[in-house]
Amino acid sequence: MASLIKTIGFNQSRKSISNFLLRAYSSNTEVPQFETLAVSVPKKNVFHVELNRPKKANTFSKAMWLELHQCFSSLSNNPECRVIVLSGQGKNFTGGIELNSLVEMAAAAEELPDTARKARFHYHFIKYAQDGITALEDCVKPVLTVIHSACVGAGVDLVTAADIRYCTEDAWFQVKEVDVGLAADVGTLQRLPKVIGNDSIARELCLTGRKFDAKEAKEIGLVSKVFPDKDSALNHVMELAVNIAAKSPVAVQTTKMSMVYSQSRPNPDGLEHVRLLNAVMNQGEDLPKAAMAQATKSPPPEFDNL
């Protein structure tokens, strides 16, 4: 206990400078603005990102792939942001990839002179789209998703890259790519089996392209809970986001980083990774502050942004 108090005292002596610098930085922090995404801050340290093409069923255009990457990369580095809630405006979460984008991409590739150059064009376009989805996974802030009505194709790619998923009773899902003549190439084939923990079901869904509803999504573990409607789902998720945002951002972000890293690696590699992370991050002020509050049964402390 004495060492904890000493550590807190030492950290407090540094805070006047660090808080001044943090305030100076935060005062210049702006909510990012995009064409295909709407970003708001409904609660302290909670950012709400909405797919914002409701007249197009929130389908993925070329601009949306890019803006997803820009948005989540920006929020990952924004100290004011601790948790992200992702949802969709309008009648559907998303209808998947905009078919016009596929047609335009194919037409552009056909204008190239030979197979090698066409292949390189396709390769870079796929990587461009993958980067937009992987940005959710690379973002060190937890991403909580609310899915309503249709979640098709690229929508499944998107939500499987998030951390926690909830949906409404009217939600339905479909790994649609096989029906339009291609293998899903933006993340579903890699992430869905790990998310639901059942390779057989994942392969069935990806090979048949069949629709499945909210009840089945809950049964197979794709979503944590099903809500009657979008409003009740968002209310619950906002409460959860506020709860997470009040915790140590050091602990929360390190937890996500370790879980993402360990998801596709052997346990010894994951254990080494978290050892290295905590060897550094445990030297900050969050651990002694939280430990002191727990030891003295005090109210949860307020943590500085990270």
UniProtKB/TrEMBL annotation:
Source taxon at top rank: Eukaryota
Gene Ontology molecular function: delta(3,5)-delta(2,4)-dienoyl-CoA isomerase activity
Transmembrane portions of the chain: none
GO cellular component: mitochondrion; peroxisome
Reactions the enzyme catalyzes: (3E,5Z,8Z,11Z,14Z)-eicosapentaenoyl-CoA = (2E,4E,8Z,11Z,14Z)-eicosapentaenoyl-CoA; (3E,5Z)-octadienoyl-CoA = (2E,4E)-octadienoyl-CoA
Pfam families referenced in this protein's UniProt entry, alphabetically: ECH_1
Listed pathway(s): Lipid metabolism; fatty acid beta-oxidation
Record localization: Peroxisome
Keywords from the UniProt entry: Acetylation, Fatty acid metabolism, Isomerase, Lipid metabolism, Peroxisome
Matching InterPro entries: ClpP/crotonase-like_dom_sf, Ech1-like, Enoyl-CoA_hydra/iso, Enoyl-CoA_hydra_C
Biological processes, Gene Ontology terms: fatty acid metabolic process
Role according to the record: Isomerization of 3-trans,5-cis-dienoyl-CoA to 2-trans,4-trans-dienoyl-CoA.
Family: Belongs to the enoyl-CoA hydratase/isomerase family.
Name this protein carries in UniProt: Delta(3,5)-Delta(2,4)-dienoyl-CoA isomerase, mitochondrial
